[in-house]
Amino acid sequence: MCVPPGFWDRPAVTKAVRARDARTVLHLLHHSAPHLTHEALAAMCGVDQSTITRALNGRGLTRPDVAVRALNRLGALPTPIDSTIQARTPSPGSQWRARLDADAAHTRAQVRSLLDQDPPHQVLDTLETDVDHLCRIYVHTPLVDLYPQISARRRDALTLLGSLSRPDQSQRAHTAAARLVGLQAHAAMDTGSYTTAIGHAQAARALADRTGDPALRAWVWALHSLIAYWDRRPADAQRAAENGLTHQVTDSNLARLHALRARAAAAQGDTGTARAAIGGATEHAGHEALPGVLGFPTGKVHTYASTALLALDSLSDRRRSIAHAERAIALYGAGADRSVGDLLAARLDVATAHLRDHDADGALEQIQLVTAVPPGHRTASITRRARRLAPLLIDNHAASVRRARDLLTEFVRTPIPALGGNG
């Protein structure tokens, strides 16, 4: 456990150290070294883990003597405690302080050892808070920035599982671990690593099955369907969605599974099943949605309906596809936690429909917006959608078509960022 090289030389860190702002230093360190758990940071600072958790949530660590001591333990240049603080908290000699600190660290290690078979709820509270945060921001944060945090917390969750004995704690830890492994599956899929994604999804399903939670099991089946669809296995994608629908789902995953079934059926040319499934997804839109990648908000229902209808390719279906895509764009444009991937997908659906209707100007408007997005937000699925437009731009020499072709050529040429965002 160590501070990353060069950390103390950063201007923001130097400024916080001068101000004896240990809380800001902790935030910067947590961002720079996401592999450091709350427990590790507590040991490094010589404070309780609860103090670290509160500090990272914007509370606590304001007592000047504690803040200075934490900074010094982390390795900041010695920060003098001003005279007013010294008057309140007499400072013992350095040897005595070192002995006290060492003894405190030994005590914490012994207590952690005693609690290994029955960790406090606080450990799980922290883990669940981190998992919810990662799931929420996954849909709009570049994967290269996020993956190290996902990987680190997954290691923590699986390590914790081996030390649990109480059923309620085991249930919570299994849920957190399944979601984190599911996030890793999403990450692999978003970089086009479908074999790796399948392996993670299978591991997530094993964890979810042990919880018995129908919503979690449905979410994992949806993940299997999603991977199969982008791996060009629409029949498997449909079966996975239908397996998910066998569970007693009452949250937004019900709409998700119908939408996945619709998209997979449409890819196979099964018009009847696709339209019925779109109806099912629309009927169940608006159910309670968990944050980020865990939920399936109404905007996502419209995005999936748009893609399914576009695959059916009749004139009326294209009109409905555009209507659904434009509704998705409107909803995501107003949302605080909007999904960048779904917004790009909806725009590419609109562009595709316009090109099939020979409306090059309407298509170019959407293509310009899509290709302006930074590379960190591009995924394998978005790149594939963009490539599908190429055949529609052949043998047309209009200025808007040439411009669209140039933009898309450069867009698909840009490599997808390696792991360690969305789509």
From TrEMBL:
InterPro entries: Cro/C1-type_HTH. This is Uncharacterized protein.
